[in-house]
């Protein structure tokens, strides 16, 4: 493991510290001058890819609960959540990211798809199920498959993430006054 590995990954004002990571990658890098720029803007991408000793995490972060969120954007998010568009988008992010990393020959471990969505917790279990249904048939198996594309798909809010993953705390970064 590199001594310079940055285990704290940030998506706008949300930061997650993957303290025990073997490698971390901001996969949704859109700046061409950055070393992790992927070069295919048409593909959907998860925000982060985190390699652990035993697995690879694909992590998507959406922050509709941001105190600075505009009502119009929050309503659009809720509409897309209710009509299934959002679960399709999240599924596409996993599928395209999987394909990209497969093409790089970087998928030698089982994959877990974890999403952090800053909404109230009661809507999230159904959202997890909706996304999972649009991925590979997780509850089915083929006798020819040697491994499954995704081990699990779960959606958390900040509270449930921190309860389930105390080693990987999520914090909201608040800009300093006057900054």
Write the layout of secondary structure elements.
Blueprint (H helix, E strand, L loop, with lengths): L7 E4 L2 E4 L5 E4 L21 E4 L3 E8 L8 H13 L1 H19 L6 E8 L6 H11 L17 E5 L1 H7 L5 E3 L7
Helix pairs in contact: 2-3
Key structural traits:
179 residues, alpha/beta, 5-stranded mixed beta sheet, 8 strands
Task: Describe the structure in your own words.
- The structure is a single chain.
- This protein is of the alpha/beta class and 179 residues long.
- The protein has one domain (8-172).
- It contains four helices and eight strands; from the N terminus they run E-E-E-E-E-H-H-E-H-E-H-E.
- A five-stranded mixed β-sheet has the order 3-4-5-6-7.
- Helix 2 (85-103) packs across helix 3.
- The longest helix has 19 residues, at 85-103.
- It is globular and about 45 Å long.
- It starts with 7 loop residues before the first strand and ends in a 7-residue tail after the last strand.
- 27% of the residues are buried.
């Amino acid at each position: 493991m590199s001594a310079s590995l940055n285990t704290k990954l940030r998506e706008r004002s949300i930061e997650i510290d993957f303290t025990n990571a073997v490698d971390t990658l901001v996969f949704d890098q859109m700046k061409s001058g950055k070393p992790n720029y992927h070069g295919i803007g048409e593909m959907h991408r998860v925000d982060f890819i985190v390699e652990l000793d035993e697995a690879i995490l694909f992590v998507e972060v959406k922050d509709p609960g941001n105190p600075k969120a505009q009502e119009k954007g929050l309503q659009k998010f809720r509409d897309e959540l209710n009509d299934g568009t959002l679960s399709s988008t999240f599924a596409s992010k996993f599928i395209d990211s999987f394909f990209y990393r497969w093409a790089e020959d970087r998928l030698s471990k089982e994959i877990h798809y974890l999403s952090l969505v800053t909404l109230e917790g009661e809507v999230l279990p159904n959202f997890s199920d909706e996304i999972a249904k649009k991925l590979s048939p997780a509850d089915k198996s083929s006798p020819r498959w040697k491994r499954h594309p995704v081990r699990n798909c779960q959606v958390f809010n900040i509270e449930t993430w921190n309860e389930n993953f105390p080693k990987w705390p999520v914090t909201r970064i608040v800009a300093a006054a006057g900054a």
